[in-house]
Amino acid sequence: MIAVPLFSIPPIISLLPLRTMDKLSSIAKFKASCPFLGRTKTSTLRTLCTSTSPRYPSLSRLTEKATECPVMGPALQLRSGQMAAGYASLAGTAEFNKIPEHKGVLASPSAASAEKCPHASKALAAARMAEDLANLKNEKSAKAASAPSTSKAPATAAGCPFHAATAKETKRKSTPGGFDYEQFYTTELEKKHQDASYRYFNNINRMANKFPIAHTGNVKDEVEVWCANDYLGMGNNPIVLETMQYVGLARASMLFFTHAIGRSRTLNTYGHGAGGTRNIAGNTGMHLALEEELAQLHRKDAALVFSSCYVANDATLTTLGSKLPGCVYFSDTMNHASMIQGMRHSGAKRVIFKHNDLQDLEAKLAQYPKETPKIICFESVYSMCGSIGPIAEICDLAEQYGALTFLDEVHAVGLYGPHGAGVAEHLDYELQKRAGQSPEPIKGSVMDRIDIITGTLGKAYGAVGGYIAGSMDFVDTIRSYAAGFIFTTSLPPINMAGARASISYQRLFNGDRQLKQLNVRDLKGRFEALDIPVVPGPSHIVPVLVGDAALARLASDTLLAKHNVYVQAINYPTVARGEERLRFTVTPGHNMEQIARLAQAVDQTFTELGMKRTSEWRAEGGRASVGMPDAQPVEPIWTDEQLGLLDGTAPRTLKAGQERVVDARAVRITREKFNNLLGPGEEGVDMDVGVAQVVEAVAPGLTLPTPPLEASIPTAVSA
Ligand SMILES: Cc1ncc(COP(=O)(O)O)c(C=O)c1O
Fold it and tell me: Residues in domain Aminotransferase class I/classII large (predicted)?
């Protein structure tokens, strides 16, 4: 069993009376053993040492922080009682003793308490050490501390105390004279720790019946999710769930019991896996129908589904760049890794232009003969800063210089345009709205001018998968040549059905999109009023600048530990160093009270951790578009008119306890689309029914393949 070094740290309390420099050098000794100290920059530690806690003015912020530690907290409590003239002179014992109680720190240190440490628990998760800790918990004894681990070998990394502790015991011996593979991994991981780009994954389990709540590794520990890319909450939309699995979702009456059982939907009909590649047994009606739905959504000839949009981008760009003779790619500097990989894999020349900079793009296009095949690759919504690409203007340049346009609408599909086809659709909002569900292209519209659109099924549509859409022969070429499409098992029919139901529903109902944008406006407004540094942008992304990797992680940990708010820190390489941030996503399923509480929690965290606000960034000349001296106000792309704010048709925001609205017409039409494959849907149903009631009504004694939803489904309304 592995000894967890965290428990051997002498209390920081003993260092507190020393001068700051002495304190820091003493604390630095424990960087290797304490996950918090190990990951926090010296400059941040210095700030924490020298500033007083706003809540407990007689303590430094570092001491207050230490009380949250399951090891330090109880030790501090004990020592504060013992040290009448030492520590107690710095902090009134009574005030100090309140802190652990207030923060729920355990009375005595134990192995179990390590799980309460936000720093340790994340390192544990990343290092696959949870299993070892569980063993530690069960076999807490001297014997356990010296016995070898029986669990599977964890990854090793010298920069992580848990990796380091286990590395010696679990390393596979290298063949004498042979390459030391384990050392190689250790060194590579150490680099990640050194440059603060090592990733810690939180265990977050979003619950279908409690949106936007998730539980952590402990099922009883519930948190609010504020960073998921399930932008519209479609991952638990009732028509999606019904299409995938449920039988007669809306039937509340026993009258329909037998009838409903006979009409089981996709899972019951087609089972789980697709059974093969698209070429061999894995080309199902659900795949074909989804591709038809996608082609119609974008008013293109054809679409093709891939296992993800990462794969779609990579496979498509690899194929085009290697097939088109002398092809040159023009790539926005902020393009997603999937596009960059595809361009690289193709071996074609890649010219990078400055983010959204048309002059730079034109200057670079002009350097190549018109007859040279060129592809301009860009995104509509850039997901980490929330900026939007100048799509129409790039189409102008593409026409002028004979280039194809490749537009990644991953963070826009479902969310923009009257039917959710993305920003290209949004730019001709009224025209596209009037065209309704017609699959015909609208000549001259921005969406029509884009040659290749790629999108994901995994974000606003709440499913999994990615796709391309474009001309018939383009799609057929990729289908015929792209290895990433051909040589892989196709996605399960159930996922294809769920994705199609989601797209169809969102094509028919604008309310979720509008409500999302209203909530985004509300959150941005609250943050701005509190001087929280929101990176300005016209889209739904709410990035909040932190500007330091360790501080961003600390802010994320603090929000989770103290406020039950889960927002992931975004650090290098996803964003540039010095531009680290928290990236909030708010959905139509978040209610007003939750949004208000979030703003307060973030405000409090900024104060507690001494994080810079907009005014402070401004005083320093600005960073990452925050507090820039020459900044112009940024207008949201969804206008007041499009949100229904001018004619009173805007959807109502949710109050605590209110259920999300589900559109009955969109449900009915979507359900009918599956009739040819799944049998007739439930006509004329009353959607104002809870899933729990339905399940009870249709299936007393019947074991459904997965547990039924317990909470009521949202109220249905007509569009
Ligand atoms: C801009 C962009 N394109 C493509 C992808 C890949 O999409 P998927 O998650 O479907 O693989 C992402 C994923 O986050 C993305 O942000």
Answer: 225-602
